[in-house]
Design goal:
The complex is a heterodimer of chains A (about 120) and B (about 550). Chain A is an alpha/beta fold. Chain A has a single domain (about 5-115), classed as Transcription Regulator spoIIAA (2-Layer Sandwich). Chain A contains four helices and six strands; from the N terminus they run E-E-H-E-E-H-E-H-E-H. In chain A, strands 1, 2, 3, 4, 5 and 6 form a six-stranded mixed β-sheet that branches. In chain A, strand 2, helix 1 (about 25-40) and strand 3 form a beta-alpha-beta unit. In chain A, helix 1 (about 25-40) runs parallel beside helix 2 (about 60-75). The chains are: A alpha/beta (about 120), B alpha/beta (about 550).
Chain lengths: ~120, ~550
Amino acid sequence: MNNFSISVKPANDIVVIMPKGYVNDLGAERLEQACEQFLDKGIKKVVINFSDMQFINSIGASIFTGIVQKTLEYNGQLCFTNMRKVHRDVFEMLGITKHVKVFKDERNALSFLKGLG
Amino acid sequence: MPLKILPEKDFFSRREELADLYRRALEAEKGNAQSIYLSGHRGVGKTELLKQLFNYLFWKQDKIAPFYYSVNNAILSVSDFSRDYLTHYICQRLAFEEKETSLIYLNGLSIEGLTSILEERKTTWALEILDRYTQSHEPIDCLRIALNAPHESTLATGKAAVLMIDEFQRLKNLHVEGNVEPMLASLFEMPLSFRKTMHLFTGNQTEIQEMPITGGLARIKLRPLRLEDSALMLASLLEGYGVKIDLIPQALLNHLGGNPFYIRCITRATGLTKKSGEKDCWGAYIKEINSGNIYLYWAAVLKCFFPEMELRRNVLDITNKIYHSGEALSHNRVNRLLRMLSPGREHAEAMAKTLYLSGFVSGEFGVFRAPRDRVLIDFIDCLYMKEVLGKSYRDIERGLLERASGAKGRGISFEMTIPMVREAELVAARSLEQIGKNLHLNQDVIGQLQMAVIETCINAIEHSKGEDKKIYLSFDFTEDHVEIAVESSGREFISQETGEPFVGRGLKEDAGRGWGIKLMKNFADSVRFEKTERGTKVVLVKNLLKSANVDKEDTASNE
């Protein structure tokens, strides 16, 4: 799959995950696996930076409900940043944004998470 | 040529279909052929395709005997039909074996005349069939013998046959001594099942679909010409009139819906004027539907289905209401309207059914709508204005030209075809992005349309049932709105009755696919699901004026 890639920036107890390209079923599953890996390792503060995500489809978006659930199970905190309006609308439709903190950019999300202690 | 056909240069965009039918026909030699029902709207070129296939089989090989027969309304008594069918079959078979084309045209040949031809050539198998035919005195037995003749000839000679029967729906009017016996057509069931005598029949699809014969057949749908092929056809035919066209009238070609018959009529009318400007083409079109060949064609259909003169006005009234109601009308509502025009419940029922069978309205499952054929709608509108409202030709012409200028629009259109492969939807989405940039559209609006297009393409891929693994997209932009049509061979996910997608049947309910339709509806101002020649079309409409007021903020607000 050439239209999707993922990059990860772990920093202490926070991880920033950046999906890039087209998030369909396969892309979202890779994203879910990446989140799970960090949650399993005890890193419970997860930021997903959407600045490089160009497209998402309904299957991809619905897999995010799994990511949200998993984070809640680990008592973690999930933050979304750099979202285009259309993508935020999709997540709102699916009821996902009720369970995550949405920030304009990564810097704001990181300062919020650092403040949590 | 054995049958009169179009020259190769004028036989547009049907090479693939012809090759496919030819391949299927060749299977008859191995005893693997399956009989076919070739469907498609009036004027789409079914007859021409059969004739081309006949000629192909006639000249290009010598193992499978072709037979072409067009059922004639004047020859529908069982006795006459049996004789005509049998004599034509034997003559065409002889013509094929001896490559003697004159035998194909021996119309009205008596049994005695044919017998002497066969005796002269010592064609024993045919003489035996004819002998049995003449010995039989029961019309139904004669019909059976005639219908089984191809199979018997195959058994006797080892040579397979392909039988092309045009205007097949007329067989529902077969009669014995004046008593119409619609079920007699089911005597074809046995011959249709033979694998060395492949039958290929066609005709008026709405009537054939109602006949008790189509089960167990392969169905091949002949689709309209694509826009680019329509343009090629128009230009090439005009050249035949010595007229060169500088600018293809795209809006008119769109209006003609890829129907080769219409294109041919308009070309002839335009060619005779020796002018080829867009206005001249539209002028020719208006003349055609008012008094030209298109008028004559549809008027003949109207008169054939509604022979009683007093009914024709009612037809114009009711079709006009259905066409312009802006919604599908239920069976009950149409019946009520018909009873208002002409009292009598049975009468209304019969008329509603005939309206559907004639093709003037769509209504296979009792929900009546305007047909997709915009030319037919114009024909009915013209006739209604002329005959019911008493308007002058000038008024009608003005009205149609206004509508034509609406069809031309002020916008811009893009078309693309993508294969049904994984992530092909991204090609459509990225194209939309570039179009949006070129037209300086709001990026949020483009983003929303991209989402909707991605979901629509995925649906098309998931629900495709046909062999045509392609998605046809068109993007039409005007100043105030954008219309995106995504068409594919998928048919299953649309309800026949409501035109809406099935919930929980065609759609996977797991993994969030049920959200696809919700997303489309959320991001477009309206979503229409239509059945088309190809299969299914989903039309997304977005009002750009309304969307111009949306919040332009591109990112989420800071918490």
